[in-house]
Amino acid sequence: MLRKVVLAGLAATAVDAFTAPTGFFGTRQAPAAKINSVKPVSARTQRVNGAASLRAAEATKNKLPASVKPGVVTGQALVDLLKYAKENNFAIPGVNIVGSNSINACMEAAAKYGGPIMVTFSKGGGQFIAGKSLPNKNDEASIAGCIAGALHVRAVAKQYGIPVVLHTDHCQKAWLPWIDGLMAANEDYYKTHGEPLFSSHMLDLSEEPLEENVEICKKYLERMAKCNVLLEMELGVTGGEEDGVDNTGVDSARLYTQPEEVWYTYQELSKVPNGHFTIAASFGNVHGVYAPGNVDLKPVILHNTQKYISEKLGGKDKKPVNFVFHGGSGSSLEDIRYAIEAGVIKMNIDTDTQWAFWDGVRGYEAKYHDYLQGQIGNPEGATKPNKKYYDPRMMLRAGEEAMAKRLIQAAEDLNCVNVL
């Protein structure tokens, strides 16, 4: 019988194994120049441009697949895009959104940095889009809001001239009716348009036993494969709390996925005809904000897992697994880049973009504070109107601009600049 997920008592042993200086679980060589901090975008322009030029030269052998066009990318085009990302050593920002403003900020940023973007809907985000006043019985509001947001993206994505992946985030076992509703929408859309409404969905059944996690994911992948939807699934647990998923008290042993677990999952999901999937394998990831040093990321786990599975498959493909990176906020640039080298093709971004949007609104209020205290009267005169200052579009636009700027920085970190 397949061994179970590492027990708490083995946590220290498992973690030590991943950092042993020799053998299969050996560590990487120290980088030539240690990266101490992520500098502001303006201070990194020369480095980023140089890296982009190098990637452009490297990509001459592997140009953007012809199947990948501006607009929403699904099916084989999505598979081709993820393969292209892995071959060219970049990852796609996967951004949680809550409405048209954050959706538009995502696509504005992607158009500016010259790369793809993944617009990600959570169950709570979908409910917010539909309207918080609505009852959410049977996840009806969450389903309706996600569909509405997806249709908005489809209506405007081509105008931005970039590939967009429509994705949904963590879905635990109790929330599967939400995904059932979205899959029904995918199937209806497929009948009319020959492609699904969404590009991909994530199932996070990491709280369940490994065999049950994989069994349910396999069942859903069989359904998804029939209308060309890609599955993202999670192994291990991402710590912290995000949008109703609270893993703050989880056993630390579950933050580190074992190669055998990934291999078992890869084997089972690969049995599904036309099934395509990515794996969020935990390597110490934690959602939310944390101070440097409080989280012990070990992307070497991903490298070792790729080596393990590659050898099982005969060694021809050195990076057979498409990994995704959850809980990336606050991670060092060194860890992010090393994870990408291990086959990470997408990193989730939420905490930092939430702050950026608010910071943009906050900055707008601070700049025009004296014009926002009443409808009439400001420093220019007691009878001067303030409508153009308190127009909601003004403050929301400030939030969009700040969020887009932060996403451009994220794209730089992920090597996702000028990759189209």
Automatic annotation (TrEMBL):
The keyword NAD does not apply. Its cofactor is Zn(2+). Its EC number is 4.1.2.13. GO terms for biological process: gluconeogenesis; glycolytic process. InterPro entries: Aldolase_TIM, FBA_II, Fruct_bisP_bact. Catalyzes the aldol condensation of dihydroxyacetone phosphate (DHAP or glycerone-phosphate) with glyceraldehyde 3-phosphate (G3P) to form fructose 1,6-bisphosphate (FBP) in gluconeogenesis and the reverse reaction in glycolysis. Keywords: Glycolysis, Lyase, Metal-binding, Signal, Zinc. It catalyses: beta-D-fructose 1,6-bisphosphate = D-glyceraldehyde 3-phosphate + dihydroxyacetone phosphate. It comes from Hanusia phi. Pathway: Carbohydrate degradation; glycolysis; D-glyceraldehyde 3-phosphate and glycerone phosphate from D-glucose: step 4/4. This is fructose-bisphosphate aldolase. Residues 1-17 form the signal peptide. Belongs to the class II fructose-bisphosphate aldolase family. It is an enzyme of class 4 (lyase). CDD domains: FBP_aldolase_IIA. The keyword RNA-binding does not apply. One of its GO terms (cellular component) is cytosol. GO terms for molecular function: fructose-bisphosphate aldolase activity; zinc ion binding.
